[in-house]
Amino acid sequence: MNVLEINKLTKQFGDFIAVDNLSLSIQDGEIFGFLGANGAGKSTAINMITSLLPITRGQIEILGKNIVKHSKFAKANIGIVPQELAIYEDMTAYENVQFFAGLYGLRGSLLKSRAEEALAFVGLEDKHRSYSKNFSGGMKRRLNIACAIAHRPKLIIMDEPTVGIDPQSRSYILNSIKKLNEMGSTIIYTSHYMEEVEEICTRIAIIDHGKIIAQGTKQQLKAIITNQKNISIEVRSVEQLDVEKLRDIVGVNTVELADAVIRISSDAEINNLNKIIQQLMASGMEIRSVEADEPNLETVFLTLTGRSLRD
Ligand SMILES: Nc1ncnc2c1ncn2[C@@H]1O[C@H](COP(=O)(O)OP(=O)(O)OP(=O)(O)O)[C@@H](O)[C@H]1O
Questions:
Q1: Most buried of 10, 47, 160, 301, CB within 10 angstroms?
Q2: Which CATH number does the domain housing residue 160 bear?
Q3: 289 pLDDT more than 90
Q4: 23 and 52 co-located in one domain
């Protein structure tokens, strides 16, 4: 079953359409990335999924149930880590988690044990009684996560949880996301840090002007812009090179020579680098360097939207 099913979702603020006819299915066990520049509509979409904003048009289902008709069920099954910190500075770490888990419906001894478990999960087990106003930025972010996961939601939504924090907390958070996913939660992760999305997401939707302009695995997105990879091999001399033999290798499309550099354009899907190198070595060539450039998500984003993610 799909954990989240969005059908033709639209949000209009007056005449302005912030989310435009967006449809999407997220399956159990995915870490799904929403990638988009500032103002693309990511937070607006998330605020509708979490019922913080009313829907203008379209439907959202969590675990097969419409979130408007089954609001209590939806609330119990979603955990949101918002972009802006949502913790109370004049409450202790434990009181914060207890408060939010209570809002999600936990009570009594279960609430207590889950709050303790969530604090331990984010590495704040020694800080139960500390006031969050004394925490570093990274610790506050981690507490923010504990508040969202104590009720063990099926779907956890993280809206840019690593903005403005130190590298150590960043890597802690990314590892926690992977761990939460291994423990059975489906994750939606929004970011404009391309490397993070590449590192942790199983599938990605690129959002621009409120629309999904492409979605798929990293490999599928990269294949949209190019099915070619470029290999540059620097050799001592190209004198002995048999260009025809290189062209005969499966996947190789073109071979060009520029001084002592052989430039090969090949099908990105075919792993033929070993064969190319073997062929060069068999003809007695001395290889000095090899570079294979594959497109990254930054290139995909630029090509599809005409803009950089961090404009
Ligand atoms: N309450 C509102 N009233 C009018 N316009 C709004 C409102 N909320 C958001 N918008 C507009 O909707 C668009 C999408 O905003 P949104 O915050 O969803 O983008 P985002 O992709 O989350 O960007 P960011 O990465 O900066 O958070 C923006 O142009 C924003 O100005």
A1: 301
A2: 3.40.50.300
A3: yes
A4: yes
**Do 178 and 92 belong together in one domain?**
yes
Given a cut of 60, is residue 311 above it in pLDDT?
A: no
Same domain, 75 and 153: yes
Give nearest CA residue, ligand 1 atom 1.
13
Mean pLDDT for 204-215 is 93
Q: How far is the CA of 210 from the centre of ligand 1 (A)?
A: 9
Distance 20 CA to ligand 1 centre (A): 12
Per-residue pLDDT tens over the stretch 240-263: 888 999 999 999 988 888 889 998
Q: What is the ipTM of this complex?
A: 0.95
Tell which residue, 179, 184, 174, has the closest CA to residue 154. 184
Taken in order 114, 117, 123, 126, the sign of the CA dihedral is positive
Backbone angles phi, psi at 204, to 5 degrees: -140, 140
**C-alpha 234 to ligand 1 mean position (Å):** 48
Expressed as residue numbers, the domain containing 288 is 227-294
Q: Report, in this order, helix, strand and coil percent for the chain, each rounded to 5.
A: 35, 30, 35
CA of 79 to the centre of ligand 1 (A): 21
Contact 274, 249 (CB under 8 A): no
Q: Which residue out of 20, 43, 52 has the highest number of ligand 1 atoms within 8 Å of its CB and is therefore the one to mutate?
A: 43
For residue 35, the CA-to-ligand 1 centroid distance in Å is 14
Q: Is 42 a pocket residue for ligand 1 (Cβ < 6 Å)?
A: yes
The count of structural domains within the chain is 2
Smallest Cα–Cα separation from 180: which of 157, 203, 209, 162?
157
Number of the ligand 1 atom closest to the C-alpha atom of 34 = 21
Domain CATH for 281: 3.30.70.980
Find the mean pLDDT for residues 49-69: 96
